[in-house]
Amino acid sequence: MSYTTEEYAAAAARATAEQKELLIVGGKLVLQEPAPRPLAELRQEAAATLWANYKRHQQQYVDAEDLTLATVCAANGSAKGAAVQAWVMNLWANYYQVKDAIEAAADAETLAAIDLAPDPQDVPPYTIRELNEEARQGAAAE
Q: pLDDT value at position 130?
């Protein structure tokens, strides 16, 4: 049996909406559940999403240059610089805990239950602007 472009398009739209695969079996259009994806593939996808989420969260507040500023400030005795540096280190410590949970997940259901996003309420204790002002004041005092 052959199908018109419109019939096939309608069946394909339904398959997409229902997240099913569209097959032609014995000349008929059939929707079926997709084959389960391998756990290794799901873990790899989760790890990539986790990395992107944590990197985006850090860079929203502290990019590489800002971290350098925080490190220099901390090395010069700045409590604010040390606090921002500690915030970044803690963020990535949390990342590795979640990454370990991804690797330890025994099945797709366990993996899907893992929260891949950092806590949106977790923000640095000081802004980069505050660090810049402190660095400027320290330089002016020398």
A: 93
Residue in 95, 96, 99 with CA at minimum distance from that of residue 119: 95
pTM of the model: 0.75
| Nearest-angstrom CA–CA distance, 112 and 13 | 26
CB 108 within 8 A of CB 35: no
Query: How far apart (Å, rounded) are the C-alpha atoms in residues 116 and 65?
Result: 26
CB atoms within 10 A of CB 88: 17
37 vs 108: CA distance, rounded Å: 9
Q: Whole-number mean pLDDT of the chain? A: 91
- The 10s digit of each residue's pLDDT in 97-140 is 999 999 999 999 999 999 999 999 999 999 999 999 988 887 77
Beta strands in 4-141 (DSSP E): 21-25, 28-32
- CA nearest to 115, candidates 41, 39, 54, 58: 54
